[in-house]
Amino acid sequence: MKNSVPVSKIMTKKLVTLTTKDDLVTAERLFKKHRIRHIPVVEGSSIVGMLSYTDLLRISFADAVDEHEEYVDTIVYNMFTIPQVMVNDVVSVASKTSIGDVARFLSKREFHALPVVDNGKLVGIVTTTDLINYLLECIEP
Fold first, then answer.
1. 103-115 pLDDT, tens per residue?
2. Cα-flanking dihedrals φ and ψ of residue 6, to 5°?
3. pLDDT by residue (tens digit) across 119-131?
4. Helix axis angle, 99-108 relative to 128-139, nearest 10°?
5. Mean pLDDT on 40-60
6. Mean pLDDT throughout 19-38?
7. String of DSSP letters for 62-117
8. CATH code at 98?
9. For residues 96 and 59, what is the distance between their CA atoms, to the nearest angstrom?
10. How far apart (Å, rounded) are the C-alpha atoms in residues 62 and 66?
11. What pLDDT does 63 receive?
12. What DSSP designation does 33 have?
């Protein structure tokens, strides 16, 4: 396995994003529809925050609702905005950062996704799942 391979080889390039003007009901629907756990929050092509499904669980009973169900209880979600719930101090990596460096970084931190940013523009996202899938490709015949 080569850990010098750039993260651009495994990152998700087709991004699902939110803006600060979107609401949390929209966010939960996107999480469920796309079966994802992290959504970058953007202004134009720049990242301003990161929202995780765990962030929603902290303020709601979203986990009590079936993941595939479209209905969302909006009472709690109407009490908060995306900027109030998202992580503001986003750590990112460049697309040329090695997969090994990303793996080492994520293993030491408490989050499971990193936005990939080149020249101030969001170009992808890499998650621990991407890293595990890469590892599995390397070890499976």
1. 999 989 888 999 9
2. -70, 150
3. 999 999 999 999 9
4. 130
5. 91
6. 94
7. GGGS-TT-----HHHHTT--HHHHSBSS---B-TTSBHHHHHHHHHHSS-SEEEEE
8. 3.10.580.10
9. 36
10. 8
11. 46
12. H
78 is in which domain, residue-wise?
Answer: 7-139
Distance between CA 104 and CA 90 in Å, rounded? 17
Residue 82's φ and ψ, nearest 5 degrees, are -60, -45
**pLDDT of 74:** 65
Question: Rounded to two decimals, what is the model's pTM?
Answer: 0.84
| Chain length of the chain | 141
- Specify if 2 maps to a domain: no
User: Does 1 map to a domain?
Assistant: no
With H, G, I as helix, E, B as strand and everything else as coil, classify residue 20: coil
Instruction: Tell me the residue type at 58.
Output: R
* Total domains, the chain: 1
β-sheet bridge partners, residue 114: 126
